[in-house]
Amino acid sequence: DTEVTQTPKHLVMGMTNKKSLKCEQHMGHRAMYWYKQKAKKPPELMFVYSYEKLSINESVPSRFSPECPNSSLLNLHLHALQPEDSALYLCASSPPTVNTGELFFGEGSRLTVL
Amino acid sequence: AQRVTQPEKLLSVFKGAPVELKCNYSYSGSPELFWYVQYSRQRLQLLLRHISRESIKGFTADLNKGETSFHLKKPFAQEEDSAMYYCALKYNFNKFYFGSGTKLNVKP
Predict the structure, then answer these.
(1) Would residue B28 be called left, alpha or beta, if left means φ above 0 and alpha means ψ between -120 and 50 degrees?
(2) For residue B37, what pLDDT is reported?
(3) Which of B44, B90, B95 is the mutation pick for testing A, counting most A CBs within 10 A?
């Protein structure tokens, strides 16, 4: 399995809902990422997990809560989101190589907040 | 602060013409640079990394530290090259910063 898999592909939620995005990879990668991509914009880094520990939080609001239960799984828990949080949420992973590590992206979860 | 600049939002060329997508970076450390590509309805994927000095699908990119550039070039564009191209800078071990992207449109 050489892919990063994200579920769900589409999610519509109200501002009071609680939902989660899920990401899975079985390539043995030890770094996993959440990116946010608005329409016609580049991906923006949100969180990085390295060896299942949160290593980078790019000042993301607390209504986004990441979780890395094991080396293959990454979740993004969503609560009390705002309409401006509507975007494509991309998960990525990278191999444990300091100098040549590249990002492997999932197809994304398209989130709409009503 | 680190920065990646892609000055062209859209680049249109005819099939068979040379193409150059520009990327300039600003980073005080030793840069690691990548080109990522997103074809229509496909996921974002790696095209090239400067450290490999390879040619992929006829594309090459050379890191010019003097000009702080990492331009992507192909001598003869093909219609299937039409896509969104992002230049990316890797820094602080695990951070990837993406430029704003250039949409390449290759006309028949």
Answers:
(1) alpha
(2) 96
(3) B44
Q: Which residues in B lie closer than 8 A to residue A98 (C-beta atoms)?
A: 93
pLDDT tens column, A74-91? 999 999 999 999 999 999
What count of CB pairs under 8 Å joins A to B? 46
Q: What is the pLDDT at residue A81?
A: 93
Cα-based torsion angle of the residue sequence A8, B101, A34, A105 in order, rounded to the nearest 10 degrees: 60
Contacts 24+ apart (CB under 8 A), A43-51: A43/A90, A43/B44, A43/B86, A43/B98, A44/B98, A45/B95, A45/B96, A45/B97, A46/A76, A47/A76, A48/B94, A48/B95, A49/A74, A50/B94
Amino acid identity for residue B74 in this structure: K
* B13-27 tens-digit pLDDT: 999 999 999 999 998
pLDDT for residue A73: 97
Q: How far is B15 from chain A (nearest CA, A)?
A: 25
In SS3 terms, chain A reads as CCCEEEECCEEEECCCCEEEEEEEECCCCCEEEEEEECCCCCCEEEEEEECCEEEEECCCCCCEEEEEEECCEEEEEEECCCHHHCEEEEEEEECCCCCCCCCEECCCEEEEEC
The answer to whether residue A100 scores a pLDDT higher than 80 is no
